[in-house]
User: Fold this.
Amino acid sequence: MEKFGRNDPCPCGSGKKFKKCHMGHEDELISGKMGTLQEEAGKKITSLPEVSYGRAKEIADAIDMGELTGTPMGIKFIDLDAYLGLGFHEQDTSKDLHRGSGGLIVNFNKTRKSDPKRIYIAITPNINDSTLIHQLAHVLDSLGGSRLMPGTFYQLSLETEIPMEHLDHPKEFGDWLDYCKDRFNIELDAEDQIISFLHQHNMLLTGDDIKGGDSQGLASKSQKTITFLMEHGEEIDRLIRNRPGYTGKANKKGEE
Assistant:
């Protein structure tokens, strides 16, 4: 069987490093089983019909992915319930699924072989503008920012006790979120406003922080973000109080 380095991408296509995924369970990769399953999943996902909910088509058409990220990819929006119904979302699950109007970027590794020229975003019919650009910022960040895939840090979060919110939304994501907000004149919802506030105060982890492998240093920086949120709780509450998704004061982990 082919040997994989500890820090190589896992061949199962999860987007995680080999040491965080199938290392120690290499038997599950025998005979290309995972690759075959991944290919079958990709075909089913890419066969889902395209949808155009809310401002999805308008915003996607206005974005030149090649110019912005150097990677000329298109975007295909699919129905979130139809995607989840396929049962292939495993570690894609994130807080985004529980937002008032849902959205979820599909891990590129699932669809790359079946449709290498497009990125898939699953959305609900009642998608709001903030959730829409939140997912678009993830795409831009994954292609031309931190180059990290959201929803793939569950194990790191467990090991370091760093909130997933901090790992899924690095500084580079904040760059793109504010870019989209300004370009499309969108009022952010409560969650995204908190991220934007942290970004403007240089309190988000960077992609290099997350990829650096220094768990202790990463946890220390995350704790500084938590402390900052606690110290600015009243100011943040005033900013988000009248925004969609507001459920009360920001807690110590940076979630509404």
Notes: The first strand starts at residue 74 and ends at 79.
